[in-house]
Amino acid sequence: MLDLGCGEAVWSLRALELVPSAVADGVDISSHALSAAEQAAAARGLTGRLSLHQTPATEFSATKPYDLVLCVGATHAFGGLKETMDAISAFVRPGGLALVGEGFWERPPTPDLVEAIGAFPDLAGTVAAESGGWLTVHGHVSDPAEWHEYVFSWTGTLARWAAANPGPDGDQALAVMREHRDLWLNGYRGVLGFVSLLLQRVVK
Ligand SMILES: C[S@@+](CC[C@H](N)C(=O)[O-])C[C@H]1O[C@@H](n2cnc3c(N)ncnc32)[C@H](O)[C@@H]1O
C-alpha cells in the first residue's frame, strides 16, 4: 500500500498489523511526523514493512502499482479532491482500492468560515469524486464524538506542551491552539464533516 501525506503513519501501521503479508510506503514532507512514524513502527515490530519517504506527494514516483493507496486529511497536497483522485489513479492497479479522507459541509457555511478554512463540497459533491473510473464501495462519516476527541486531543496536547514550556515558544503554541479551537467552537463545529471513502478502481 501507499500512504500519501501519511503523517505519523497511523493508518498504515494499523493496516500492516491487520494484514501480515502487506508492506507499505509512506510519503510526507514533515520530518517530525516521519520520525514519529519510524519510532512507532519500531515499537510495534513493523520497521521492515514500512518504507518512509520525505518528499512532496506530487513528486513521489513508484515502479509498480499498489493494491491500496491512502490519502487521509491530505488532499491539499495535490490541490483538492479531484486532483488527488487523478494522482491516485496513476498508482493503483485496476481493481485496486483508494481510501480517501476529506472534509465536506455538513451544513451550509457562512462566507467567513469559507474564507477561514477553505471551500469544500457537501457530501454528495464529495462522493462525486468517484467519477472518472472509481466506485465508492464504503464510506464512514466521522460522528460528533470522533470530532470532539480529535480536536480536544490535539489542542490539549499543545496546551500541555505550552504549560511545560513557559516563555515565547509556549505563548506561541497557546496562541495557535486558542485561535484554532475558537474557530472550531464558534465556527465549524457541526458544520464541517469528515468522510473516509473507500473507492475501487473500475477495471476497464
Ligand atoms: C492532517 S495530516 C494527516 C496525516 C495522516 N494521513 C493521518 O490521517 O493521520 C496531513 C499530513 O499531510 C502532510 N502534507 C502536507 N502537505 C504535503 C505534501 N505536499 N506532500 C506530502 N505530505 C504533505 C502533512 O505533513 C501532514 O502530515
The ordered H/E elements are: EHEHEEHEHHEHHE
- The CATH architecture category of the largest domain equals 3-Layer(aba) Sandwich
CATH topology of the largest domain: Rossmann fold
- Going by CATH, the homologous superfamily of the largest domain would be Vaccinia Virus protein VP39
CATH class of the largest domain: Alpha Beta
Radius of gyration from the alpha-carbon trace, in angstroms: 18 Å
Estimate the mean pLDDT confidence: 96
Tally of contiguous helical segments: 7
Strand order of the largest sheet: 3-2-1-4-5-7-6
Computed structural class: alpha/beta
Short description:
The chain is an alpha/beta fold and 204 residues long. 42% of the residues lie in helices and 25% in strands.
Folded structure, characterized:
With 204 residues, the protein is α/β, with parallel strands linked by helices. The protein has two domains: 2-143 and 191-201, Vaccinia Virus protein VP39 (Rossmann fold); 146-187, no CATH class. The chain has seven helices and seven strands, in the order E-H-E-H-E-E-H-E-H-H-E-H-H-E. Helix 6 packs antiparallel against helix 7 (168-188). The chain is globular, with a radius of gyration of 18 Å. The model has no long low-confidence stretch (mean pLDDT 96). Bound molecules: S-adenosylmethionine. S-adenosylmethionine binds next to helix 1 and strand 2.
Helix/strand layout:
Elements: E1 2-4, H1 10-18, E2 24-28, H2 31-43, E3 50-54, E4 66-72, H3 81-89, E5 92-105, H4 111-117, H5 123-127, E6 134-141, H6 144-164, H7 168-188, E7 192-201
Parallel strand pairs: 1-2, 1-4, 2-3, 4-5
Antiparallel strand pairs: 5-7, 6-7
The protein binds S-adenosylmethionine.
